[in-house]
C-alpha cells in the first residue's frame, strides 16, 4: 500500500538523550506535594485566633467568666447561660 522511504539516517551530534528532566520533576513533586501542604497546615494552625470553648478561655486568663453566648445553629432564640 504505502511505500516508506528513508531520506536521511539519524545523526548523533553528541547532545545525549532528549527527554524529561527527572531531577526537576522530583524536586517539584517534593515542593508541591509535601512542603506546600505542610506549610499551609502550619500557617492555618498557628493563625487560629479564636477560642473554641470555655476551657481555653479559663486556661488563658485568670478573669472569671460572667456569661457565655451560644452559637445560633438553628432558627431558635439565642440562649445566654
Write the layout of secondary structure elements.
Blueprint (H helix, E strand, L loop, with lengths): L21 H25 L7 H7 L21
Question: What would your notes on this structure say?
Answer:
The mean pLDDT is 78. The protein has a domain at 23-50. The protein contains 2 helices and no strands. With 81 residues, the protein is mainly alpha-helical. It starts with 21 loop residues before the first helix and ends in a 21-residue tail after the last helix. The protein has helices at residues 22-46, 54-60.
Distance between the termini: 90 Å
The chain-level mean pLDDT equals: 78
Q: Strand fraction band?
A: under 5%
> Major sheet, described briefly?
none
**Residue share in helices?**
25-40%
What's the shape?
elongated
**How many helices in DSSP terms?**
2
- N-to-C order of helices and strands: HH
* Residue windows where pLDDT falls under 50 for at least 5 positions: none
By DSSP, the count of extended strands is 0
Structural class: mainly alpha
User: Rg, please?
Assistant: 32 Å
Task: Provide a compact summary of the structure.
The chain is an all-alpha fold and 81 residues long. It has helices spanning 22-46, 54-60.
Question: Descriptors for this entry?
Answer:
single chain, 81 residues, mainly alpha, 2 helices, 0% strand
Amino acid at each position: 500500500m504505502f511505500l516508506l522511504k528513508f531520506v536521511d539516517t539519524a545523526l548523533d551530534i553528541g547532545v545525549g538523550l532528549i527527554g524529561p528532566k527527572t531531577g526537576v520533576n522530583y524536586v517539584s513533586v517534593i515542593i508541591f506535594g509535601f512542603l506546600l501542604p505542610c506549610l499551609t497546615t502550619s500557617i492555618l494552625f498557628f493563625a487560629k485566633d479564636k477560642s473554641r470553648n470555655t476551657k481555653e478561655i479559663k486556661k488563658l486568663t485568670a478573669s472569671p467568666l460572667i456569661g457565655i453566648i451560644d452559637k445560633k445553629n438553628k432558627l431558635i432564640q439565642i440562649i445566654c447561660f
